[in-house]
Amino acid sequence: MIWLVILGMAIATYLPRLLPFLIGQRLRLPEPVCRWLEFFPFAVLGALIIPGILTAPSEPGAPGWVGAATGLFAAGLSLLTRNVTLVVAAAIAFAWLLQRIF
What we know:
The chain has 102 residues and is mainly α. The chain is built from five helices and no strands. The protein has helices at residues 2-24, 31-37, 40-54, 66-81, 84-101.
């Protein structure tokens, strides 16, 4: 019985991943729709990251705005450099520095 459950779960997770590849090869979307879909990764990342930034716990005694300030710092730096590794490392350092100062 357990093997049937595992097989059913495997099919249920694999099928939604396979269908877009099978259907998407023959389906051509209009150019405006394709351009619109290019923004989805950014929207999803924003939806996942921003609530974490706003509710990020800080060290005891540090102000609660450290997460929001670090998010703004990272957003600004990403516009300037467009280097993900640099932005992540600098944002970590910035958050640490803010927590030490305040």
